[in-house]
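Bug #77: duplicate submission created two jobs. Keeping one. Sequence:
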Amino acid sequence: MGADHTHPAPSTPPRVRRLLVMTVVPLIVVTVIATLVLWPGETPKIDQGDQVPRHHGTVTRVVTEACPPAPQTPDGPSGVADGPCGTVTVAVEQGPDAGREVQTPVPSGPGAPTVAVGDEVVLVALVDPSDPSASSYHIAEHQRGMPLLWLVALFAAAIVAFGRLRGLAALAGLGASFAILLTFVVPGISAGGAPLPIAVTGAALIMFVVLYLTHGITAQTSVAVLGTLGSLVLTGVLGTLATAATHLTGYGSEEATTLSMYQRDVDLHGLLLAGIIIGSLGVLDDVTVTQSATVTELAHANPGLSRLQLYRAATRVGRAHIASTVNTIVLAYAGASLPLLLLLTADSRPVSQILTSEFLAQEIVRSAVATLGLVAAVPLTTGLAALVVTAGRGPADAGTAGPTPTPRPAPDRAEALEALSAPRHGEPSTPAPARWPDPERSTDAAW
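Kept job's structure:
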């Protein structure tokens, strides 16, 4: 979330700091109060029936064999059953059969795991309804706990090694983000709360915690906070208008349809808006932090720049950032919806009908609204940062670029050539013609 700008920024005047405190602190208080008001009560439990027992085990032997003929069907002749076929011996590590070796059929079918000797797998125990005392084991999937643990450890080590204390703060902010999502946003929506206010409140809470924890309590961070919050509100308004204009219901994915079957009181339309806001937050804070730091660094490098010059220079940086980030947003949504896109390419309907279908219109609205909020974040944050950075100057300093230095008179051409051909200190003298064969020759072409 933003680059590491560790260069010391110019000190902010006390009255500007007081103004930022008077602006940011009430927003934090309102966010905390809204969090307490919207905090979920007891989340209803979903009755999923009897859970199938799952136990860990290790594959010790795999025996494959030819598949038997498939049974005769009324639609056609019999063929060979889908493979692979055979048996897998697994050493059970948990449950009533821990320490024993059991045999299971080789996993087959779409999405079935491919197993080999030494693989750590998850077994499910299936009970025969006609004979409860008889049970059989089947391989459900591979164990992924240890590889994921090593990957997360590598991720954390790389962040800390490169970012040091700032990287450690970023990891703490990431943990805080997940904690807020899993303890407030997700349970609140599951309990039947309105998804849009819960998402806005949760996003604001994440923003305050993460930005101040990662980038410190400074005027520069406060400007990024205000820019992010304003862009989030605008994103929510645009999302509400866009989904209403396109008549999106929220049933644009298989996951949403499945969720409606388990929890009928969840507002899927509001859930769509909540997803847009939460998804936009990660990109928004990156842009706002970068713009705020850009204005601060420009003012520090050249104190003579006026407020308007700072805004224009930082906006040029923001345009380049937006040009690449917009592509990032669209590709991120396209990558997450790649199976859906492949499914739509096999659709025989006209392209106009496919583009306006609920499935694809939802992704178009999501990308467009997030991009509009991102574009608005650049001028908003840049303007606030320019005001804060130049607030300590006098009226003349804030509106002009400072005194123009008096130009020096251009040196005589003969004097310049003589100075260039003169020997350096400590070096043997070299005749001028050796360095400048033609003293009257113009050097413009060489330069």
